[in-house]
Design goal:
65% of the residues lie in helices and 0% in strands. It is built from 7 helices and no strands.
Length: 113
C-alpha cells in the first residue's frame, strides 16, 4: 500500500523509468545521454535503476534533453490527464488508499459533516 513515507521512493521510481523510456524512444545509449547532459555513464545507470535521481542542478538539463516537463520530473502533475496516467499505474489497493486520502482532505470522510 502506498504510504506517505514511500511517496518519495515512488516518485524516484517514476522518474528513473521515464528517463529510460525517453532515452530509448530517442534511440540513445546510456553513454550518449550521459554525454548530452554532462554526467558519467554510471550516473545514468543509477537513475534508470532508480537508485539515485539527477541532482537539482542537473535535472533541468535532463528534462530539456529528453523532453520531460520539469514539473513532472519533480513529481508534480499539472494536468488532469497526467494525473490520471499516474493513478492508472497504481495497484487497486493503492488507488483505494489514494481515494481515502483525497476524501479526507476534501472533508468527505464517512461520518464527516
Amino acid at each position: 500500500m502506498l504510504r506517505p513515507e514511500n511517496l518519495v521512493c515512488t516518485l524516484l521510481d517514476m522518474l528513473g523509468d521515464e528517463i529510460r523510456r525517453r532515452r530509448e524512444e530517442k534511440g540513445w545509449t546510456q553513454e550518449q545521454l550521459a554525454a548530452k547532459v554532462g554526467v558519467t555513464y554510471g550516473a545514468v545507470q543509477q537513475w534508470e535503476k532508480n537508485k539515485t535521481a539527477p541532482k537539482r542542478s542537473r535535472l533541468s538539463k535532463v528534462c530539456k534533453v529528453l523532453g520531460i516537463a520539469p514539473e513532472l520530473a519533480y513529481g508534480v502533475t499539472t494536468t488532469a490527464s497526467g494525473l490520471a496516467a499516474r493513478i492508472e499505474r497504481l495497484s487497486e489497493e493503492d488507488r483505494a488508499y489514494l481515494q481515502r486520502i483525497i476524501d479526507a482532505l476534501a472533508g468527505n470522510e464517512p461520518g464527516h459533516k
